[in-house]
Amino acid sequence: MARFEEGRSISCPPLFVREAYSQWSNVMKYFILAQDFELWDIIEEGYIEAPKKKKKQRSENDTKAKLNSRAMHILLCGLNEEVSKKVSTCKRAKEMWEKLERLYGKEEKKDGIF
């Protein structure tokens, strides 16, 4: 009889693996997309807070700020303590994602993994 390993949880983000950054980042991307497409948009495109002059602009800023916070929270939940310290000063999810890419994406290429 075949024995199957336990699969990943659909409610917990994938845990960061330094040696397999490319795989982790790909799985994390789809995990975030499964949570909410707009979360991934915030990571890819980022957001800049617009001046809070009108009620509609405040509401849009609040929505984007919430999406940014959710995206950052998901990313941080997938990182170990060592790595989360390196990105904890980031103010935007996009900045955090790009910093992870700079730190670990290049490391894989340097080590000849890709």
Low-confidence stretches: none
Major sheet attributes: none
- Estimate the mean pLDDT confidence: 86
Helix content class: 55-70%
Radius of gyration: 16 Å
Categorize the overall geometry: globular
The SSE order reads HHHHH
Structural class: mainly alpha
Tally of helical runs: 5
The number of E-state strands comes to 0
The N- to C-terminal Cα distance equals 36 Å
Number of domains: 1
Strand content: under 5%
Tags for this entry?
about 110 residues; mainly alpha; 5 helices
Sum this structure up briefly.
The chain has helices at residues 21-35, 37-45, 55-77, 81-87, 93-110. With 114 residues, it is mostly helical. It is globular, with a radius of gyration of 16 Å.
Question: Could you explain how this protein is built, in words?
Answer:
This protein has 114 residues and is mainly alpha-helical. It has one domain (18-109). 63% of the residues lie in helices and 0% in strands. Helix 1 packs across helix 2, helix 2 (37-45) crosses helix 3 (55-77) and helix 2 crosses helix 5 (93-110). The protein starts with 20 loop residues before the first helix and ends with a helix. The mean pLDDT is 86.
What topology does this entry show?
Blueprint: H1 21-35, H2 37-45, H3 55-77, H4 81-87, H5 93-110
Helix pairs in contact: 1-2, 2-3, 2-5, 3-5
